[in-house]
Amino acid sequence: MVLSIGLAVMCVALGVSMIGVILPQLGSRAPLHFFLRVTTMAGVLSVGSTAMYVLAFQGGGPIALAIAACAMVLAPSMLCIAVSAPRSRQVRVLVVSAVALALTVGVTSVVLDAPTALTVRVLAVAAASAACAVLTARSRTIPRRSALVLAGTTGGFAAYCLARVAVEASPLGDSPLARTLFSIEAAGVIATATVLLAGVAVVLVRRSPAFGGAATTAPWTRVAFGDWPRARTELGPDGLLALLTELRMAAREVDPSAVDVYRGVEMLVPSALSTVRSRLRDAYGWRAAQLTLLRESVDGSRRT
Questions:
Q1: Is 13 exposed, middle or buried (0-12, 13-18, 19+ CB in 10 A)?
Q2: Are the CB atoms for 60 and 113 separated by under 8 Å?
Q3: For residue 108, what pLDDT is reported?
């Protein structure tokens, strides 16, 4: 019953988020567009996982349970990807990790006994949620208020999952309090609340000053390394990554709304390239040869 109610609540929340927040923003610049698209996938996976669990508990068999387990792990894994810079190497690593983790959980749900498989599922969700909390706290691709809410939500859910495993492995596992806190009903309530709070983080994206207000019609300018292979040859991998870090730091010093993109940043300031070059030269000691590696391109799309 609790799972059915949670499913209904999540469906309504996902529909509201899609219509009120996500769809109106899909014409915006790349990092926000990427975050909203992948977050939508995470929401759909959460709803699908709950639906498959309802089916499994109604006699759907091990296949339904395995699908539910895979979707349950993929949901927080998608959030890890959502808060990463689009087209970055980190995204590719996270995709491979998410698929491997989901397959592991799906297989163990079928081949292992129920208590052991449950422990594996809970630990996998805890790992994905904890990773999401860390990556979100470090992310510069979404507004800080949204990042704080999402990091706190996923971090709290990871702590709940780890506490469940620790308590059930201890002598307290058979206590009435433990059976109440970690029952199917309680876990369903916690999971539903987690999904709703993640939805709040998405809503805060629209309300953020960095993504709204009078600046919504201004074009975004990308400042990035124009010839990455050449820069990598001249500076070496470590030297190039150090300069990329300094570029992003300097960009945020002159424009707090700047966000990381592939091999550079996007900014909302006039004369972005010259402004960033001046900051890098004066504050970070970049030489002329290093400054010439940067290129500028204007995003023709308008934020909506």
A1: buried
A2: no
A3: 92
> Is 133 in contact with 151 (CB distance < 8 Å)?
yes
Closest CA to 76 of 102, 57, 51: 102
Closest-CA residue to 304 (of 13, 24, 14, 6): 24
Backbone angles phi, psi at 12, to 5 degrees: -65, -45
Which has the closest alpha carbon to 56: 42, 71, 44, 66? Answer: 66
Mean pLDDT score across all residues of the chain? 80
User: Residue 133's pLDDT band (boundaries 50, 70, 90)?
Assistant: very high
DSSP-assigned beta bridge partners for residue 223? 265, 296
Q: 173-207, pLDDT tens digit by residue?
A: 788 888 888 888 888 888 888 888 888 888 787 66
The pTM (predicted TM-score) of the whole model is 0.65
3-state SS track over the chain: CHHHHHHHHHHHHHHHHHHHHHHHHCCCCHHHHHHHHHHHHHHHHHHHHHHHHHHHHHHHHHHHHHHHHHHHHHHHHHHHHHCCCCCCHHHHHHHHHHHHHHHHHHHHHHHCCHHHHHHHHHHHHHHHHHHHHHHHHHCCCCCHHHHHHHHHHHHHHHHHHHHHHHHHCCHHHHCHHHHHHCCHHHHHHHHHHHHHHHHHHHHHHHHCHHHCHHHHHCCEEEEEECCHHHHHHHHHHHHHHHHHHHHHHHHHHHCCCCEEECCEEEECCCCHHHHHHHHHHHHHCCCHHHHCCEEEEEECCCCC
